[in-house]
Design brief:
Helix content: 55-70%
Strand content: 5-15%
Radius of gyration: 58 Å
């Protein structure tokens, strides 16, 4: 078994440090500070340069080696002050304008260790099992690093631009192995492209924390790439003066003549372009390229052959899409104009006056640089012509530091074309490293426009990742034709079954994953096994669908049961609540009645007491008045007594006055004695006769005067 270590010694960092990309977007969304999210990316680089003077050129070079992001030294110099704020750098006391790296630069990042470790461990196991089949062993750290590098660059396309070869020759008399091309040999980078794409798609389709982490990784890496390589616009106002030309595959994506995933991303990208007011241009030679791309699978169908590739798969499975592709081919120019594109002939710019900005020799050098010399020549010629034309159209504005100043750009979804052409023109001294390149990837443009006009970057980067992964997992002609050729030689019916299976996306992905897109891994002795694996993948899909349907039914039943149970519980709860409310109302009413009775009893008691008090007071008043009446009657009798006494005295005095003067004392004594005896007898008789009527008369009269006559029955009056 071959052991391979991908880490090398070129400044690459560990997988855990690459995961910091996942928190760039999160930090920016929370703080609005672009640098805050990037700081964790810089820590491992600065840690190797502790106490050394901060050199922007050296730092930017280290960032490019570690993350494959070309960083301008000017950008690095501009970050120095921010890095000092985060205590990664310090100002040298002896040199106020010099920064030095802190002894132990460190910044905490909110890493979810369990989620990250689980994702990377799952990929290591997934990739190791596949690589073991081709007798290759790669350490887990190397696998994880390769996976994260592909996620952060969204570049899985290192092999899809190779020439397409058709191995199918039909039924032959003698069974022979198909002769492989040199490009069909196993390359580890291609294997990791396929395995990374397959695992990323599988994880995203399953959803959950793994899918969320992958989306954050791609979004954060895109922010970092835009910030470190381009001047971030402060507004979208300056974008109105920009002209952008687009490569054919990107426009075909927009026309929905590629995979659905690529169309989904391109639709969002062109919506941002439209929002920014950017002028859309397509060169005439690109239009010719697009027509050739459309014509190939359509003519193959007319010849009765089976077309493959992104468009071939679409038109094989959907006849209406074939009609749409044919109509687009017939009216491509007018449709592009209707969509707002201007068609420009690049030959009008191939003149002596403009060759000073990019001559024909440089254009030829571009052609030889952006791809292998002996493959896809026509495609390389067209891409080189597009980049050279953009340089010529820029004219004197060659050393622009921002996209708005550059005025012209060529946008491609081919990362290799963008990166290699940029390196070549810098090498030829047409542009400097700090200048805006002539060619820009669609992904980087999407990130730039997100800063300029807004949008959902997480969703956009996720769509780009899915689009690239799906594109990788589309089997190319060489792969399908080789399996078909071998099966045709063994049993034509098996070949027919295989071709029917190739209409299914799951079968297509299974074929690519099983062979890792290497035709050389398809042999006469294993093609039957490969057919069985592909067939089982569709059966697996059917089984999965059945399981999903059963799970859905179970879920629906559980949900219905849960709803019914909840409804019953709610109804029971409502009944119990109603009973409790009634009981509470009854208890409240009973308490209110008891309170009312108590209050009424209290009031009655108060009234009784009051009445008793009034009655006592009234009786006392009656007694008082009765006493007054009694006193009046007694006073009357006393007056009678005194009247009788006075009358007696007057009678005695009168008798004495008229008595003879010669009375003796004994006479006087006898007279006085007789008078006294008469006073005792006669007055007593008179008094007893007059006293009671007088007393009663006076008493009743006084009672009537005092209004107590009606109460006489309550009293017992003694004589």
């Amino acid at each position: 078994m071959t052991n391979v270590d991908l880490t090398g010694n070129n400044g690459a960092i560990s997988p855990r440090e690459l995961v910091a990309f996942a928190f760039v977007e999160e930090a920016y969304s929370k703080t609005g500070d672009l640098v805050a999210g990037l700081v964790p990316l810089f820590v491992p680089i600065l840690a190797k340069r502790a106490n050394r003077r901060f050199d922007p050129a050296e730092f930017s070079s280290a960032v490019e080696k570690a993350y494959d992001i070309p960083m301008s030294p000017l950008v690095a110099a501009g970050l120095a002050e921010k890095l000092a704020e985060f205590r990664l750098l310090r100002i040298d006391p002896g040199e106020p304008h010099t920064y030095r790296v802190e002894p132990s630069p460190h910044v905490e990042t909110p890493l979810n260790d369990s989620g990250i470790n689980q994702l990377l461990a799952s990929f290591s196991q997934f990739a190791s099992e596949s690589l073991k089949k081709i007798d290759i062993h790669v350490p887990d750290d190397s696998l994880q690093n390769a996976f994260l590098k592909r996620l952060t660059s969204v570049d899985f396309l290192s092999f899809v631009d190779r020439r397409e070869k058709n191995y199918y020759k039909g039924k032959k008399l003698v069974l022979n192995d198909v002769v492989d091309d040199e490009q069909d040999a196993v390359h580890l980078d291609q294997a990791l492209d396929v395995l990374s794409a397959a695992f990323a798609l599988q994880t995203i389709e399953q959803g959950g924390s793994g899918a969320d982490l992958i989306t954050r990784l791609t979004g954060g890496a895109l922010i970092a790439e835009v910030v470190l390589t381009l001047q971030v616009p402060s507004s979208s106002a300056a974008l109105n003066n920009i002209s952008m030309s687009f490569d054919g595959p990107l426009i075909l994506d927009f026309l929905d003549l590629s995979t659905p995933e690529l169309h989904d991303f391109s639709k969002d990208l062109f919506a941002l372009i439209e929002k920014a007011g950017i002028r859309k241009v397509v060169f005439a030679h690109v239009v010719a390229e697009m027509k050739g791309t459309l014509r190939g699978p359509l003519e193959a169908m007319q010849r009765g052959e089976t077309p493959f590739g992104p468009l071939g798969n679409r038109i094989r499975s959907d006849s209406s899409h074939a009609g749409y592709a044919r109509a687009t081919l017939d009216n491509l120019e007018s449709q592009l104009v209707t969509m707002g594109f201007e068609i420009l002939d690049a030959n009008t710019c191939a003149i002596e006056d403009l060759f000073v900005f990019c001559d024909l020799a440089t254009e030829e050098g571009l052609r030889n640089t952006i791809g292998p010399l002996h493959t896809n020549l026509e495609r390389r010629i067209r891409d080189a012509r597009s980049i050279a034309t953009v340089l010529r159209l820029r004219g004197a504005i060659q050393h622009a530091k921002s996209i708005a100043d550059a005025k012209w750009l060529f946008v491609t979804r081919n990362d290799v074309v963008a990166s290699k052409s940029s390196s070549f023109v810098v090498y030829k001294n047409l542009l400097k490293r700090d200048d805006v390149p002539a060619a820009l990837t669609d992904r980087r443009l999407a990130g730039y426009l997100w800063f300029a006009v807004g949008g959902n970057l997480g969703n956009l980067s996720r769509k780009k990742l899915i689009a690239n992964c799906s594109y990788v997992m589309n089997p190319q002609t060489d792969l399908v034709s080789k399996v078909r050729q071998y099966l045709t030689e063994l049993d034509p019916k098996k070949a027919e079954i295989f071709m029917a299976l190739m209409r299914d996306q799951r079968a297509q992905r299974c074929l690519v994953q099983s062979t890792m897109a290497f035709p050389s891994l398809i042999r006469l002795d294993n093609v039957d096994d490969l057919l069985e694996v592909v067939r089982l993948s569709t059966a697996e899909e059917v089984r999965t669908i059945a399981e999903q349907r059963e799970a859905a039914l179970t879920r629906e039943h559980s949900e219905a049961l849960a709803v019914a149970t909840k409804r019953h519980a709610d109804e029971e709860f409502e009944r119990q609540s109603q009973i409790l409310r009634l009981e509470e109302a009854h208890a409240h009413q009973r308490q209110a009645a008891e309170k009312a009775v108590t209050l009424r009893d209290g009031q009655i008691g108060d009234l009784a007491n009051r009445l008793s008090e009034i009655e006592v007071a009234a009786n006392a008043n009656i007694d008082l008045r009765m006493e007054k009446a009694l006193r009046s009657a007694e006073n009357a009798t006393q007056l009678l007594k005194w009247a009788l006494f006075i009358t007696y005295l007057i009678a005695v005095g009168t008798a004495y006055w008229y008595a003879p003067t010669d009375k003796t004392p004994s006479f006087f004594f006898v007279t006085l004695l007789l008078a006294a005896i008469g006073y005792w007898m006669i007055p007593a008789y008179i008094f007893d006769t007059l006293r009671r009527p007088l007393w009663l008369w006076k008493f009743h009269g006084r009672c009537e005067e005092l209004q107590v006559s009606q109460h006489l029955s309550k009293f017992q009056i003694d004589d």
